[in-house]
TrEMBL record:
Name of the protein this chain belongs to: Homoserine kinase
Function: Catalyzes the ATP-dependent phosphorylation of L-homoserine to L-homoserine phosphate.
Subcellular location: Cytoplasm
Pathway: Amino-acid biosynthesis; L-threonine biosynthesis; L-threonine from L-aspartate: step 4/5
Keywords noted in UniProt: Amino-acid biosynthesis, ATP-binding, Cytoplasm, Kinase, Nucleotide-binding, Threonine biosynthesis, Transferase
Species of the source: Solibacillus faecavium
Chief subcellular location: cytoplasm
Pfam families registered for this protein in UniProt: GHMP_kinases_C (PF08544), GHMP_kinases_N (PF00288)
PROSITE patterns found in the cross-reference section: GHMP_KINASES_ATP
GO molecular function ontology, one term from the record: homoserine kinase activity
Catalyzed reaction equations: L-homoserine + ATP = O-phospho-L-homoserine + ADP + H(+)
Family recorded in the similarity comment: Belongs to the GHMP kinase family. Homoserine kinase subfamily.
InterPro entries linked to this entry: GHMP_kinase_C_dom, GHMP_kinase_C_sf, GHMP_kinase_N_dom, GHMP_knse_ATP-bd_CS, Homoserine_kinase, Ribosomal_Su5_D2-typ_SF, Ribsml_uS5_D2-typ_fold_subgr
Chain ranges of the GHMP kinase C-terminal domain: 203-280
Length: 303
């Protein structure tokens, strides 16, 4: 049996406007782990976007792996995990979901659990509490998902999207718990009906790949963005500038503070150049939908 592996998990954006806690999109920004068996557990963090104040026992990936192993009555062989990430922490790009998915895959390999894709969808969504980011990291591409009271996830998966995406990452963190704290506990019925209709139209437009409508309904959210907007740097300015520059639409990425625009592939170079000039305090990144979800490479023992 091999003693080393690479685990690569895409980050994600969630909601895309009114698809609250349901719609996710895997992005070509990755969490990567090089895993090698050894006599004791060790995590080595490389570069930015990795936690600096964690021990093995408090590490989210370790805790997730051990939780899954316990669930399946398995024990995990200790290993060295060299970890690097293109996902800034607490920015709304699915860094925690990617870590959870990576932890599940680590347990799957070390404990020889033979988890199915459905198992991974269920477990990751149960740990996250909702299936949007987790499903997108497991599968890649676009996911529209629901999770029932037993924690079973049902997902509609669309692999390819004929568009590019631009994320506007501010130099501030926003914890999901803080962003959820501004949401109302109840919605008036007529308001909720309109919000639900907009979410339905977004999902239908995504399936139909009607990009004009996708952009329209991304910007028609009533569930969360009206309440979170004041927490987001340059929220209104980025929406307006992106639209003028040719974006189909712009929405919060997850709980924020990152914003994401969907744009035609034909304008990606001039769009990114214009946005970088207009918003120099943001990291403006051009990306695409991830073509695949979790990827595991097994190395020979001679590596």
């Amino acid at each position: 049996m091999s003693n080393s592996w690479q685990i690569k998990v895409p980050g994600s954006t969630a909601n895309l406007g009114p698809g609250f806690d349901s719609i996710g999109l895997g992005l070509s920004l990755y969490l990567t782990m090089e895993v090698t068996l050894q006599n004791e557990w060790e995590f080595v963090h490389i570069g930015d976007n990795v936690p600096s104040d964690t021990t093995v026992e408090t590490h989210l990936i370790y805790k997730t792996a051990q939780q899954v192993a316990k669930q399946y009555n398995a024990s995990l062989r200790p290993c060295k995990v060299e970890m690097k990430s293109e996902l800034p922490l607490a920015r709304g790009l699915g860094s925690s979901a990617a870590a959870i998915v990576a932890g599940i895959e680590l347990a799957n390999i070390l404990g020889e659990l033979n988890l199915t894709t459905q198992d991974k969808l269920n477990i990751s969504s149960q740990i996250e509490g909702h299936p949007d980011n987790a499903s997108a990291s497991v599968l890649g591409g676009l996911t529209i998902s629901s999770m029932d009271e037993q924690g079973v996830v049902d997902t509609l998966h669309i692999q390819e999207m004929d568009a590019a995406f631009v994320v506007f990452i501010p130099n501030v963190e926003l914890k999901t718990s803080d962003s959820r704290g501004v949401l109302p506990s109840q919605l008036e019925r007529g308001y909720a009906v309109r919000a639900s209709a907009n979410a339905n139209m977004l999902a239908a437009s995504l399936i139909a790949k009607d990009y004009v409508r996708i952009g329209r309904y991304m910007e028609a959210d009533l569930f969360h963005e009206p309440f979170r907007a004041e927490l987001i740097p340059n929220y209104t300015e980025i929406h307006e500038a992106a639209k003028l520059a040719g974006a189909y639409g712009t929405a919060l990425s997850g709980a924020g503070p990152t914003l994401i625009s969907i744009i035609p592939l034909s304008i990606k170079e001039q769009f990114i150049e214009a946005m970088q000039k207009q918003f120099p305090t943001h990291q403006v990144v051009l990306t695409t939908g991830a073509s695949a979800g979790i990827q595991v490479t097994t190395y020979s023992n001679s590596k």
